[in-house]
Design a protein that fits this description.
It is a single chain. By secondary structure, the protein is of the alpha/beta class. It is built from five helices and six strands; from the N terminus they run αββααβαβββα. It has a six-stranded mixed sheet. The chain is globular.
């Protein structure tokens, strides 16, 4: 039996360590599709229906999916049906989904928000900082701590709602 020398063993351990670091950098680097990012804003935002304002920093279920879209965004518009289907799918699995429409004039926000329903949240004053573009998906816990974040639509996942949910690590 051949035993690796001390320097060979150190080289192997070093390579494994570098591999682990590379994976961490991939999942948490700016170029990774998934990010983690602090906490969603506490500032209450109005809903389309005119009902009670909603704070994104509080989630009524163990996990929440918050989807930020803009009226002028072609990708947002193209994925509206898939996002609505995902919202219904997750509701049946006790995961809250909040749709936030922002980055435009209030009249345009309201028009687009109608496509998502009366509980749609309006961000006319830019309370949510969106980095990386829209649509933007945030997966958060009960306290609003962002667990994962994704900019853009996962085109390969939106044709199957279960696959779409799984893409975000949701049931």
């Amino acid at each position: 039996m051949v035993h690796p020398s001390g320097s060979s063993r150190n080289s192997i351990l070093g390579a494994l360590g570098l591999g682990a670091i590379a994976l961490l950098l991939f999942f948490f680097s700016p170029s990774s599709p998934f990010q983690t990012a602090g906490v969603l804003p506490e500032r209450p935002l109005p809903v389309l229906s005119g009902g009670a304002e909603v704070s994104l920093s509080r989630c009524p279920t163990e996990k929440c999916l918050t989807v930020y879209v803009a009226p002028w965004c072609g990708y947002c518009r193209a994925s509206t049906g898939a996002v609505n289907a995902l919202k219904e799918y997750l509701r049946e699995r006790n995961v809250s989904t909040r749709i936030v429409v922002g980055l435009d004039k209030e009249v345009n926000l309201r028009d687009y928000a109608r496509e998502f329903g009366p509980e749609t949240i309006l961000d006319a004053k830019g309370a949510v900082t969106v980095q990386g573009g829209v649509p933007h998906f945030y997966i958060s816990d009960r306290s609003g701590r962002v667990l994962r974040e994704l900019a853009g639509v996962p085109q390969d996942a939106i044709t199957d709602v279960a696959q779409f949910a799984a893409y975000f690590g949701l049931p």
